[in-house]
Amino acid sequence: MASRTRPAVDPVALSEDAVSDRILVLKALLGPDALILAHHYQRDAVVAVADVVGDSLRLARAAAAATARHIVFCGVRFMAETAAILTAPDQAVYLAEASAGCSMADMASVDALEAAWADLAAARAGTILPVAYVNSTAALKAFVGRHGGLACTSANAVKALSWVLSQGAKAFFFPDEHLGRIAALELGLPASALAVWDRDKAHGGLDARAMDAAQVYLWNGYCVVHQMFEPGDAATWREKEPGIRVIVHPECSLDVLREADAYGSTETLARMVDTAPAGSKWAVGTEINLVARLAGRNPDKLVVSLSPHQALCANMYRTRPRSVLRVLEAVAAGAPPPAVRVDPALAGQARLALDRMLACA
Fold first, then answer.
1. To pair with 327 at 20 to 30 A between CA atoms, which of 4, 61, 71, 280?
2. CATH assignment of 11-100+316-343?
3. Cα-flanking dihedrals φ and ψ of residue 131, to 5°?
4. Tell me, what's the pLDDT at 310?
5. Where are the domains of the chain?
6. Cα separation of 133 and 342, whole Å?
7. Domain 226-305, second-level architecture
8. What is the pLDDT of residue 268?
9. What integer pLDDT is reported at residue 112 of this predicted model?
10. What is the pLDDT of residue 162?
11. Contact 40, 60 (CB under 8 A)
């Protein structure tokens, strides 16, 4: 693509305000050719320049529906991979900050899942379908597609798990143990029907009898941010602010969820606060950037973080407006940075899992 603007500006040489202004100039110049997607956990300054802001499910839908040739993703790698899988071959997805990964996604590998699958087959545990939380690599989503399962987000995990069980199959839910557990319990399964697959132990730490007895296997991965919340946090806030409602993300532990008034995806938590009456009080158990943004746009309500600690996702926080500007400058100059690519064979298999996810939404 020929250069459509004056020579690229070095983002390092600009003030923060100038960076944001320059992004707006380039967005106007590129028009429908460029789309910026940002997750709720991004900095305010990044959210301010985004075209679509949302949780994993909303951003996946936005990517699938996008017509822009250049999509700048402000999030972490697994999200950009998902967008790349859902877009057309003539579209390019760029991760605004290439170093932004996800520790939860790194807690499960294809080799480890293949080994677990072989263990379950050897134990004759029955028909099993995999459910991959979207916080996983493209390779794991491809594993799911190959084995007839589906992906899910925190917004539709219950529906995804219900779909598997309706097939008369057991479910292997990974990589987040906590989301899988609350989804299973919400469907009415007893705790005795759930088995934690310990990724650090041979055969998941389960013997053949335990493998056979379980209806849902839960990979013991977790989100480091949502493990910062503790059961006692709710009581602390209720004592401090009588009448406060405690709402949390389902990546929190079951002990935390049991102390909450409600739980839901980031989109759900935001909607609860935004639509609440003036004067209401909210202690929100999720990433601090979203909590602070909810507080800022709801000045007529008390909105606080459930945790006394800074529940910050360091990987999400890597992205800055300068990260976005670097990508847009390169695109406008006709020399875009390397796009996020997924091996076509893997992408086709992963697309099956993601299409089933979107159908379940």
1. 61
2. 3.40.50.10800
3. -125, 115
4. 85
5. 11-100+316-343, 105-223, 226-305
6. 18
7. 3-Layer(aba) Sandwich (3.40)
8. 96
9. 96
10. 97
11. no
pLDDT recorded at residue 13: 67
Residues in the chain: 361
Q: What is residue 68's predicted lDDT score, i.e. its pLDDT?
A: 98
Low-confidence ranges of the chain (pLDDT < 70): 1-9, 12-13
> Mean pLDDT, the chain, as a whole number?
95
CA distance 181 to 158: 10
Q: In degrees rounded to 5, what are phi and psi of residue 161? A: -65, -40
CA separation for the pair 199, 214 (Å, rounded): 17
Task: Assess contact for 52 and 37: CB atoms under 8 A.
Answer: yes
* Cβ-based neighbours of 308, under 8 Å, separated by 6 or more: 233, 236
> Is the entire prediction scored with pTM above 0.70?
yes
Which of these CATH numbers, 2.60.40, 3.40.30, 3.40.50, 2.40.50, describes 105-223? 3.40.50
pLDDT at 2: 40
Q: Are 20 and 45 in contact (CB under 8 A)?
A: yes
E strand or H helix at 68: none
